[in-house]
Amino acid sequence: MLLRFNFYSTFFTICISVLLILAVTRYKDNTKHRSCPERPRNSNNFLTVGDEEQWNNPHVASPNIDDILQETRVKIALELSNYNFTNSAAKNLQELLLESGGQPLRSLVISTWRSGSTFLGDILNAMPGNFYHFEPFMNVKVYQIRGPPEAEKAIITVKTLFKCDFDIFLHGYLEDYLRNKVVPWYQFRHNDRLWKHVKYHRDLFFDPMFISNFCKLFPFQSMKLVRFRLRLVQEVLDDHDLNVKVVLLVRDPRAVMQSRQGKGVEFCKKTSPDCSRPELLCADMISDYIAAKKLQHQYPNRLVVLRMEDLSLDPKSMTLQLFKFLGLSMTPEVEQFLASHTTLQVGGAYATFRVSRDVPFKWKNILHYDYVEEIQTACKQAMELWGYRLAHNATHMASKEFYPLDTFNYSTVLRSK
Fold it and tell me: What predicted TM-score, i.e. pTM, was given to this entire model?
């Protein structure tokens, strides 16, 4: 009897152990693909478990593409029924639609990792009728495109996407997906107007004709790039059919490096020289300054420089100025976005909900002065060019009297001889 009891007891214990091992293994498999570098984590614009499940388990029934396009067409017209087109130099919506033979207003944000580009990109995307090209070079990983051999392909990609030609771009993603099982949803989730359709029907994502026709319905297009240096944008500006306007977003290198070391930014920590070494960051800042100075003379109405600190300290005023430059009019949706995203701290490293006045100088209270001195030694010229003051010692850095910003007027500085 005792032997029988011991047998069943041992058998039961083994079964429970096997079930636990299988459960843990399945959990790891299910969560492995959820951890992704640079994945957006905004409170009202992040990939939910439901979104991920929809991508992994799309609806079987094929959608009616004509219905999706017509629904989107009607929605855009309704959202912009009271829009003021004065700043755009267009008389009506149709003049800004590729579908109707018009040309949309296109804006391109050039920046680097942890410089506030996601926040600025989301401001532009708060515009009704905007199609958002979010980080099309994310598959390049943590690497800066500065010249050949990558530059030519990157420039072609920027130009074709702005023309709503997705054939080559999506073909590359499809190859990556089939070969490496790279899941692209974390990138395209930022384009919520597209994502709401492709998350239910995965085949639509890899259908260049559908996405191209969908893109052509939108009067505004925006793109942000953190892997593409400003001097490469010359060929994009030379394409007069695009009439792209470029925004160079700059941030204090001390704040950038502090943010790159923050919790949740593991992709940047010592994995790439371009992201972990301040001397490379500041070399790019100098290069961008030289390029901006040149492009300002060639295209005085097509390039604007914006410091993240100025945007954070006065978000509404700076957004109004930026929109005027881009040919956009302020809308209630943009005002609501600014009101909700600049007064409340919510979310982790990728959230854009911040108390904006606290963002610019947070590094003063976090970084050790020895590291600040290292950054300043590598970045002295870049900081001088872009109007950032040096901290002389630890006491000076921590004092209330130390204000890291010099007055900076990009139009005066960049257009001067």
Answer: 0.83
